[in-house]
Design brief:
The chain has about 110 residues and is mainly alpha-helical. Helix 2 crosses helix 3. The protein has a two-stranded parallel sheet. The protein is built from six helices and two strands. It has one domain: Winged helix-like DNA-binding domain superfamily/Winged helix DNA-binding domain (Arc Repressor Mutant, subunit A, Orthogonal Bundle), CATH 1.10.10.10. Helix content is about 40%, strand content about 5%.
Length: about 110
């Protein structure tokens, strides 16, 4: 059986361009309803060689990660904007428009 981090990485790899997923949502999709924090730990420990779209994982409010996560506070935003992600006037992602609904929603 695969460990939880490996399962997280496989799911995150499926998030298509123009969509985002939340930490809690990923946990729920993997059968861990209280796994948001562990998903966060998995994302922090993600091997660079996997080339995961970690920038597409955000909190439930659509807030971006703290600047230390990507090394620059605007880097994650720039990556998402290039993929067509829109933000509201407070700087949060438009979650109604961009939330990925799981593996069935792979076409954007």
């Amino acid at each position: 059986m695969e460990d939880f981090f490996t399962r997280v990485y496989k799911l995150v790899a499926q998030i298509p361009r123009g969509k985002v997923a939340t930490y809690g949502q990923i946990g729920n999709l993997l059968g861990e309803s209280r796994g948001a924090r562990t998903v966060g730990w998995a994302m922090k420990a993600a091997p660079k060689g996997l080339k995961l779209p970690c920038h597409r994982v955000v909190n439930i409010k659509g807030e971006l990660s703290p600047s230390f996560v990507f090394g620059d506070k605007d880097y994650q935003r720039e990556l998402l904007i290039k993929e067509g992600i829109s933000f509201n006037e407070k700087g949060f992602i438009n979650m109604k428009k961009h939330l990925w609904m799981g593996s069935e929603d792979t076409n954007g």
